[in-house]
Prior knowledge:
mainly alpha; 2 domains
Amino acid sequence: MSDVLVTLPVTPEAAELLRDAERARRMGKLVSDMLRPSTPETDPLAALIAVLKADATASGLTDEDIDAELAAYNAERRA
């Protein structure tokens, strides 16, 4: 499978960092993997959520605390 060049809006700082060809290649792979992970175990978004949840749990937050925070955040965004 060949790569396809697409245009995505990013901040000026991100654009500057993406001038590095290797970094741009890695970011392209990350975007591709996030949109179409090959398996549930290789889903980078799921891995990130697992790390964040582990950090929150280590800080003493429960699943209920996390759910309440997410609900409050979503309510604020809708308002």
